[in-house]
Amino acid sequence: MAKMEFDEITTETAPKLIAKRIKEAILSGELGAEARLPTEEELAAQFRVSRGTIREALKRLAAENLLESRRGASGGNFVRIPTSMDMQTKISEMMMLVVSVEHFTYEEVLTCRYELGNMCIALAAANRSDAQLARLEQEVVIQKQPLLSDVDFCASDVRFHCEIAEATGNPVIASVVSGVFEGVEPISNFMLYKFRERETIFMQHERILEALRMRTASAALDALAEQFEYFLSKHHEAAASQRARKAILRASKP
Fold first, then answer.
1. CA distance 96 to 194
2. Which of 19, 63, 180, 211 has the fewest CB neighbours in a 10 Å radius?
3. pTM summary value
4. Which domains does the chain have, with CATH numbers?
């Protein structure tokens, strides 16, 4: 069991501060992966707080995927190092939040999407596997289905670009880029689905796929650049339509 020494906490924000101190111990390496924390009673004595306060602090850490509780004679609270999927989910959630409240402009989001795509395509052209090509091809087949719902088309679009990120062969890039795409793509598609044409998008995807099949990064980058310009033009079209609707509403008010 890891030995831990802490100062007394006397503020009303005790659970938050205790969680912060334990988190700092994890990030500094003082508490390594799979390390077992002292019991609730021991932590309560060290921090000079109640067990309820300790329990609340541990819940905060569990919510951040930094701790996991195990039952049984050898159970307790153990340090859990977040996985790449945890990181991807966290990035996705944060991106979805900031984009939904319009903290970033659509142009900024689209440019980010494009530049990340450029990086991924360059690496994927060299590192992609046949299995990854097959999954990309399957997504294009799905996108061509005429009765596919807008939600399912969007989901396939996200999977297509996340698969390219995976094909880079770099798990850090794959996690970060997939998190960004999963956060921004649904909102982007929601904004533009009335204006964009599916055929144009899946044909661009088809060109990217074939270029990756031939390991010709330049051709795939050309198709991605075309998609960037296409989405940008459709955004301007959507924005103009929204301004026109607002003008009509203002004019109709007495």
1. 20
2. 63
3. 0.75
4. 14-79 (1.10.10.10), 84-252 (1.20.120.530)
